[in-house]
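Why does residue order matter? Because the sequence determines the fold. Keep that principle in mind as you read this record.
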Amino acid sequence: MKHIVVCLPFARDYIYCDFMVSWTKMFMYARDKYNLSLTTIVGPYIDDNRERLVRTAMPMEPDYLLFIDDDQTYPANTPEILMNHIDSGKLIVGGITPMKETCAPMIWDCDDASKEINLWSELEGKTGLVKIDGFGMGGVMIHHSVFYKIDPPYFRGDHADSWRKRGEDIEFYLKCREAGIGVWADLDLQFGHITTREVRIGDQPRKKADS
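Structure:
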């Protein structure tokens, strides 16, 4: 059976119930279909966490690495859907996650290196796979060969600049683009993002508290 190593960076010292239920269903769904392993890490810097997860996962001889985040929820068959896309020739594929504040999907156009432009206004209403520049790392599957095609560090961040314009995820995707590796989003595969409630694509944005 194919081997998927799930890479999970913990951002806090507790686990959301909705995430735990989601992960359990994902793990149970995998039985007799594919091997699903889990590697985790806790640390203050997300770029360093993701880097260390890759270094831990690769010696486990995965066919695919699946990054998930502990503040999201996933359909139980998420690994299967993404694996099928990769087996059809895509090297990096993920579903779409809403931003916590606006509920608009995090799908980015980064042709302008100084900023990230949300593409949802152009993609809303479309279905299937679309090629993009990048998105969040929660729910992204990467073929193991990608980490032989680009040089480490795979996730670059500036710890001295907490307000940097691009996160470690976009830095990774831009590095992949330089190596000729495409990034694809499955617009039909949607994830939840957990705040004090789970938000879904199309939900009404939360109102800011009056100042």
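Helices lie at 17-29, 46-57, 78-87, 120-123, 146-149, 168-178.
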